[in-house]
Amino acid sequence: MSAEPGRTRLLDALDRRAEQGRPAAFWLRDDDVVEPTDALHRFLNLAASHAIPVTLAVIPEETGIALEAYLAGREGVTVALHGWSHRNYAPATEKKQELGPHRPEALVLSELASGYSKLSALYPDLMLPMLVPPWNRIAPSLRTRLGSIGIECLSVFGPEKDRGIAELNTHVDVMDWHGTRGGRPQDVLFGEIAGRVETMGEGAAMGLLTHHLVHDEAVEHFLEALFSLTAGHPGCRWMSASDLLPSV
Ligand SMILES: [Zn+2]
Question: A single GO BP annotation from the record (predicted)?
Fold first, then answer.
């Protein structure tokens, strides 16, 4: 048995896709972006060195021209709306949510509308009509109302479902949030990516979720290994979310 079963399984899955002439679409979403930092710079340079497009989920309340100036002229970056403030309004007994049922819908929607117009003004060429709910959670009743503020697509975590608005989701998270709070084991991640490639339907994509501010060495090594393995593979195609957005 291979010492790296996950890596072997991923390579097999991609080889099959190459033989079938239908490369698997991959996309990369990085969350909690507010301002330029060394961590963001390292992360974007790593992706760019493999020509991998990145969607940055930007928290609008505190962001501004510093990030806009930093991103100007960078290739392969798109921007999505990451809530308004990334504040938690759920009680301590519940999972964290900014966009949950804890506040009036009209208030939540007006904050999202402010955020979307702020980011659209900062990034007229990079902005996607996509909402990334903080902690990947949103009140079900809000989903159908997002169209009223111009949001056409939601990006959460897990398989896409028919839940009132188009979804382009992430499926593999590099972070071990509940254990070490560092990067998850590389071969486990390879195996999960392989699993998504093996099971996803026609027209679907494999979404990788990252959080550049908390990446440790394990995550950086994993990303380098994944990008090296996949970027030039004929069975894989890293794509911009702008080319994957479900038609609405
Ligand atoms: Zn977040």
Answer: carbohydrate metabolic process
